[in-house]
UniProtKB/TrEMBL annotation:
Keywords: Membrane, Transmembrane, Transmembrane helix. The chain crosses the membrane at residues 12-30. It comes from Maribellus luteus. This is Uncharacterized protein. It comes from the Bacteria.
Amino acid sequence: MMKIFSKKQNTLVRLGGVFIGIFLTLLIYSSCVDSIYDNIKEFSKEEIVYPAAFDTCYGTIGYERVEIDLRKDGRIPASKISMGKAKKTVVVYDENTPEPTVIRIDSVCSYVNITGLTEPRLYRFKIYTEDEYGSRSIPQEISLIPYTSYDRDVLKLGILDPTVSVAPNALVMEWPTGLNTIMMEYHGLSFQYSDKDGESQDGIRSKEPRIYCGNLPAGQEMTFNMKYKVLPILEDGSKLLDTLEVAKPYIVQMPTPEQQFIPQELKILKANGISTFTTEAVQDINELVYPMNMTTFADLFFFPNVSTLNLTGKGLPETLETLTYARNNEHSIVGGGEWQEFLMPVDQPSKINGPESLQTLKDMLDAGQITHIKYIPKSMGFDFDKFLAPYVESGVVELLTNDNPFFPDHVFVGPQFFANGTVQTTNWNMKLAYSGDFLPRPGLSDITNFDPQSDMVNGKPVDLHLEQLIQSDGENIYRGVIERHNPSFFFALPRQWRFDNERYPYLKFKMFIGSDKSLLTNVGGNRYHVFRAPWIRPMNSLWSFGQNSDYGQESWDAGRQDLMTDDEIQNSWREYTINMSNNDGGDNSNKRNRVYVVNIGHEDGVTWNYNEEKQLVIYIADFRLCKTPND
């Protein structure tokens, strides 16, 4: 019985435990049935969803500012950005200071531009999005050091000063190596200064800067207020966002006007009548003449008031080159003296090297100092023509074309171009004399003198009828006694020059025979009658002097001329007109004739025997180049 009772008692205990467990569970459940949020109700009335954060953050440095990009897909308009509940962009820096800076932007931005960063230090930035309730996203953080005025002052020390060429009243600033350095990229400059009249002058330069300043006060200190537009290069090789204008004045002590300069074209300046080479001595000169064979305009820099340039060389003494012919015990020199209008450079225009220091000329043209230039097209080459083209269009350059009054209808060939034909061959021997003072040249015996007013031929006086000549003073007559069967002399130009037969296509001269007509008659087949006519032989160079032309000989036949009649001999001058237009001198032509051989008799197979008592005497005068057959 006790055993049975014990089992019943255990069962009741177990049932009681189950009921107690169920009761406790129900009690706990009933205590929580009202709300699972009972513990936070007093802190939050509803569920909070925070705004989305920016997905990246990287910065770029500017002047007293930074730009911070906030999206991986680049910079896009705010209207195209969708970031859930995010409505604003918030930038915070100096957060741990008493007065942190907070910038709110009323849109979600793909980048921000933060300005006013004037201190050369590290700035720590936090960038958030913010919703309409002021809830912020997780921030993007970045630390940056802006470029400030302190850095600009350091940069100024690295700007290169110009190389200066200075005259008492002018200077040129140049930067031969440029203004780009490892610290900066040059983008331009501006300048300002006051000239000697107190007038403010200014200007702007961009690439390859060069500054010409004229009308400056001699002997004074000049301040040029320079401002350089540069883009700084940062230590990592990247470039600043902003180009900066950096002021760096440049001070120059101007020379005094009595200081001498060293002329580059000494011979030309002396030919212009200049003997003292100081700015003070040349300050009253307003026109300079330069020959076509000049080399540089550098000397213009020292002429404060020159306004007109004549680039023809006309009127300048002793500016032509000379050339020597020496052979067969004979010696002649051609050239020297003045330029004449029938002269042009021998080279094809494409091969002519134009003058140097064009920049000096350009400076003075652009500054308005030089207002008039006289120039013969192609005379200094195609490149120089191209350089002058803008100034031709503006009216500063006057082109002296063939129809310009600058070129007279005819030009007499000067005696400085005479040469004795014996230098080519003894078969050309003539006993030559000249009526003027220029020949013979000092120290030479290639020609003698005669008096055209009282000449004698074979013991008898001869009347040269000077009144029939254009040059009736008789100062430019050549007298030749025929000594060999191919008598010739010639006119030649220095190898740098040619006859311009495009401008002057006709060679004209007069011939007179002083011997009795019986001596110039075909007697027994001797053919002496052929000496009654001249023969002109144009060419680039003589056979024995090929080195005098770079274009070959280019000899050609100008045609046979008529014989003088019995009535003309000893009574009148016969004028001959030779059409020389075959010597075109074109831009690409090799016919660049610089030699005219004057042959008597056309080399027509004469049976020759020289007789001292029966000399054949020929006179040549009025030797000239003409525009038309009637000049």
